[in-house]
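[step 3/7] inverse_fold.run input=structure_tokens len=204
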């Protein structure tokens, strides 16, 4: 079984490779951008599954997914994301993606999902696909703007300001301004405290 992990977040990529590498019969390759993933798909022996980060460099959303699905006579491709919505996941599956994997899944569940998809099955977590479309109904979310919620989600995923800015297509100074407002609204002093408060409240 051959799997390509394409994600620019080093920690997640390395974690998946470490967990999958411990499994017997799995050969792994990695890429940190969509362009690099395309090179691997074109030059390497065929993969049983290509896992693409929805927001990595060079990735143009569902357009890039469509391109990857058609490469080299057809590929099994799945999306992994910490930002994509249920609607995007549904569209990806309808386009023929092997699955959609939220980055909020525990590492062991991520590994099991990847193995499941690599064996030819389609995967999407039921709780994610049936969840409300937004966090607006959560008490903590009611006092935050949509953008503040997106920044806060990035914090809970351990992302740097640079990574959050890239994911949201904003500048780092803008992210810092949002974080300053978040700290005030959540009554915290730093990013770690903000992430803990959000997670303890079950916001993400």
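[step 3/7] decode complete -> sequence:
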């Amino acid at each position: 079984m051959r799997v390509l992990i394409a994600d620019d977040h080093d920690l997640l990529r390395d974690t998946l490779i470490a967990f999958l590498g411990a499994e017997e019969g799995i050969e792994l390759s990695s890429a940190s951008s969509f362009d690099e993933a395309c090179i691997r798909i074109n030059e390497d022996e065929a993969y049983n599954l290509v896992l693409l980060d929805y927001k990595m460099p060079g990735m143009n959303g569902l357009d890039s997914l469509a391109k990857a699905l058609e490469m080299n006579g057809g590929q099994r491709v799945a999306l992994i994301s910490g930002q994509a919505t249920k609607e995007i996941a549904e569209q990806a599956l309808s386009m023929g993606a092997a699955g959609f994997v939220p980055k909020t899944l525990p590492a062991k569940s991520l590994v099991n999902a990847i193995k499941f998809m690599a064996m030819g099955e389609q995967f999407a977590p039921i709780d994610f696909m049936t969840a409300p479309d937004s966090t607006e109904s959560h008490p903590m979310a009611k006092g935050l703007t949509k953008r503040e919620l997106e920044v806060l989600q990035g914090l809970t995923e351990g992302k740097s300001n640079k990574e959050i800015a890239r994911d949201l297509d904003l500048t780092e100074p803008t992210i810092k301004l949002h974080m300053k407002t978040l700290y005030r609204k959540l009554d915290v002093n730093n990013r770690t405290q903000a992430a803990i408060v959000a997670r303890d409240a079950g916001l993400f």
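[step 4/7] annotate
The chain is about 50% helix and 10% strand.
The mean pLDDT is 88.
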